[in-house]
Amino acid sequence: MSRGNTGVTAQAVHAEACPVREVLDRVAGKWSVQILVAAAHGPIRFTELERSIDGISRRMLTLTLRNLERDGLVTRTVHPTVPPKVEYELTTVACELHVTLLSLTDWAERHRVTIAESRAAYDDRHRPEPLDA
How does pLDDT run across 47-87, given as a tens digit for each residue? Predict the structure, then answer.
């Protein structure tokens, strides 16, 4: 019988992990990752982001950009032209995050076939038995 860690409560774990989880949820979100990757090469306009990210709605792009700006990962610059030109750019913190995202996407690319094979094997092992009619 193993000894449990009696010094740790669920509340203590939640209190410590919650802020980290909140940050990870934001930066690892489906749209956040794609925006950060798209904006990594310098200032990018809203319409360029919209065209480069398949499936994102204007509303979701706006909300995600606003949250990334609020979190200090993206800066929004409005140029005083007619019509106004708005550009988004990664902050220094987001550039550091981009390096990490590149490592993660590189890992995913290297292992995607292995993962697909593992999924297929798992599904084969756990496929329900056919019902006889």
Answer: 999 999 999 999 999 999 999 999 999 999 999 999 889 99
**Beta partners for residue 45, in sequence order:** 87
Residue 5 in tokens: 């860690």
> Are the CB atoms for 101 and 33 separated by under 8 Å?
yes
User: How distant is the alpha carbon of residue 109 from its chain centre?
Assistant: 16
For the chain, the distance separating the N- and C-terminal CA atoms, rounded to the nearest angstrom, is: 47
Confidence grade of residue 20 (pLDDT, cut at 50, 70, 90): confident
Contact between 52 and 38 under an 8 Å Cβ cutoff? The reply is yes
- Residue 23's nearest CA partner among 63, 67, 66 is 67
Q: What is the pTM of this model?
A: 0.72
Record the tokens describing residue 56, joined without a space: 């994102």
The Cβ of residue 34 has, within 10 Å, a number of other Cβ atoms equal to 19
